[in-house]
# Entry
Amino acid sequence: MSTQTKRKKQAKILRQFRSIHRAMGAVLFVFFFVISISGALLGLKKNSGDLLLPKTREGTTSDLSEWLPLPTLQDKAIAVLRDSVSADLSPRLDRIDVRQEKGSVKFIFADHYYGIQLDGATGKVLHLGKRRSDVVENIHDGSIIDTYLGTEGYFKLIYTVIMGVALLLFTITGFWLWYGPKRMRKNRD
# Structure
């Protein structure tokens, strides 16, 4: 194969990669924009000074033998939710995060973004507020659409696979758009 034919073939491949890269960029721009902004916010959440993620508050003791039983603490958290936020909100829990070293217990609810931190020993409210980082995470991974459409995680699954493959293709085509011209210049010499 002659050098001229080889260069034409390389130029054709380079044009194809540029076309794929440009088309994917145009189609997926909004999604990449949302993922990049939400990803940056998630990276900053622990350093946001309670804006995105409430700091873990300190309870009175880390000695579990002095703590109230978890069902008692759960009942207190649900009572705080109903009395201080709204009796209409679901008390269904997503998880209970026990922070023994801090002497506190976090109650994170499944159907809304409120979280309550209680002192493990006294049951006193250490913090009550929205967990905005959970909203950002749900936007980032697409599960917020599942919540609104009731699609039980299928949107998130499809969305993350498409975005993962797209990022891989962007990496490959971007590398080739950088390397291809260097290779063509090298072959010219």
